[in-house]
Amino acid sequence: MLRQYRKEVGRYPNLLRPARFTEKVQIAKLRWRSPRMVALADKVAVKPIVADQLGAEWITPTLYAGRVLPPRDERNWPMPYVIKANDWSGGNVFVTGPEAPDWDAIEKEVEYWRTRTFGRSMGEWVYRAIPHQVLVEPYIGGAEPPVDYKLHVFDGRVELVSVNWDYFSELKRANYDRDWNRVPFVMSNEAPPYYGPGIPPRPESYSEMIRAAERLSAGFPFARIDFYEIGGRPRFGEVTFYPSSGFINLPDEYDFKYGAMWPDVLPA
């Protein structure tokens, strides 16, 4: 973990007196151990929590959830749909048709998820604690998946929003503060912020997303809550506590700024 941080960021983290956002992500990986954290990061277990706190309309329906895929003759889910690992970030297979699914390839990918622990090499404890399941949901996008709004909540207040879009073609990213003013960095080392045409506008349901993110993250010094907007209505995506595993070469000004917003306490 420390070597990877140095490779991506260019220095070792100060774990004795962490002051940067990226350092505090490492502390979360090392010290946070909470059953509620595990439930929120589990793409299956989180759904009843969201339904209870926000309402069932915030959730994408579940077509199937189980330890393994069902027999092939039972996989008659309505197209299009997405097959996911409940304990991975980015573990997705999109089945959009019109051709028949390549079940040999899909089963190989699903077996890979089952036999690997996501985040182990990066020290991301929470994914080791989640009981593995395969999750199938309706695909809610179009030619591209819906725009992904990632709300970063510090001590109960949304302070930063990462917007990701065009996942199928060339992934683009832009970051905003709480008041939807652009900030000059993104939470990734893969590509710089995008300033070209076609940047998604502020979502119609942004104020609802803020309230939902702050409610779901209550009791945590930091959490990132992701949403989509479907037909002008917000839809819950997922929860993470380790954005990009903290291996982000942020400008010093913002690394310290968001680090200062993250209180040095353990989750409630």
From TrEMBL:
Pfam families: ATPgrasp_TupA. This is Polysaccharide biosynthesis protein.
